[in-house]
Amino acid sequence: MDIAGPKLRTGPLEPGPQVVVWHPTRDSFGRVTEPARIWLTSAPPGHPTPSGADAALPVPAQWLDEVKPGERIHFKDARGKRRLLEVVGTGEAGRWAQCSQTAYVTLGTVLLRVEVGNDATREAQVGDLPRRAQGILLRKGDFLLLTDEPIVGKSASTDSEGRTLSPATISCTLPEIFSTVRAGEKIWFDDGKIGGIVREVEPGALRIEITEAKSGGDRLGVDKGINLPDTSISLPALMPKDLEDLEFIVRHADLVGMSFVRHERDIVQLQSRLRELGGGHLGIVLKIETRQGFERLPNLMLAAMRQQPVVIMIARGDLAVECGYERMAEVQEEILWICEAAHLPVIWATQVLESLAKKGQASRAEITDAAMGERAECVMLNKGPHIVAAVSALDDILRRMQDHQSKKSSRLHPLHLRATEESEKL
Q: Which of 190, 206, 227 is the last residue of a domain?
C-alpha cells in the first residue's frame, strides 16, 4: 500500500455549466450507425447510471411513470435545435430512450410527450444536472498565477479586444513550497503536458509564463500534478495524513510504497514510525520519481537496507518530468545498473502497455518498452477496461524475453528464425 507523500496538485476551479452532451455514432460518411442511449430517471442525485448510457436526464417521477416504450419526446436543446427522443425500453428506476442527433441539454429543458391522452402529464423539466468539468486554457506566452491561498481558480479575463486584464489563477495544495521557489526555475503541470518558467515570486503567488503547450493550448484542470524539478523542496516525505495511514497499512499490507522520497532522513522517519506501530518487518518500496531521489539513490538504498527489505520502483511518469524526457532512457538504465549491483529488486512502472489496457490495442513502441521490462523483477500495469488483455500480453512478452535477457546482461539464446528452403538445401 502506498503513502501519498507531499504530492503537489492544483486546487479547485470555478464549476462549469450544468449541461450534458451526447453524440450518436457515425460512419465515415456521417451516417448514424448507432443512436445515443439516454437514461431517463427519477432516482435521487448520485444514484449510479446504468452502463451503456451516453447521458442521464433526471425527470419527475410522476411524469416518468406514465412514459411507455414507443413514445416520442420532443425538446429544444441549449442551442435552440429541435430534437427527438424515442423511448425504447424500461428499467428498474427509469426508461431507456435513444436519439439520432447531437444534443446539449441543460437544467430546466422542457421535455414534451406527444400522442398521449388528455389526462396524462405532457411536459416535464430536466432536473439537477452535474456540472461539467472545465479547465483553464493555457497557450504558449500566457501567464498563470499559482497562489498559496485556497481560492477557487479561474480563467484569464480579457477586454472586448482580447487583451488580458488579469491572468488565469489557480491554487496549490501545498503552500509550504512557496518559500523555496525562485524566479527562473521551471515548473510543470499535469504529468508534463504544460510547462512554464517562474518569472516572479510575489507575496503569496508565483507568476508563471507558459512555455510548453500544444499549438492550440492545453487545459489545466483540478487536482493535476505539479513538478518543480529545479527547486530544492525541503518538505518531509511523510505528511500528517501519511503517519495516520501507516496505522492501517501495518495491519493489512506486506509492503509500504514511499512516494516522493528525496533524502535518507525520510526513510529513517518511516522506519521509526513502522517500528512504533509494530511494522518493522514490512518491506519498503522506494518510489524514485524526483530528481533529488535519483541523484541520492545510493544513499537512499543504503539507508533502507539497514533495517528493511527494500525494493526500488522506477516511477517513470514523474521522473521523466523531473529529469527531462530526453534523459529518461539514460536515467532508467542507471537505476537498473545500480540496483543490480546492490542486489535489489526493481519495479518497472508507468505507462506499460497503456494503449492496450485503455484502448484495446498496443503500439509497437509499447511492445518494445514492455519487453525491456524483463530486466526488472516486477512490471506494473495501470488500470483500464482491457486490463485482462494487457496482463495476458505482458505475460507472453516477458516469457519470450526471459531467455534472451538476465537483468542487464544479454544471453546467447538460440534464435528461432524459420530456415528458408535454400538454406536447408545448403
A: 227
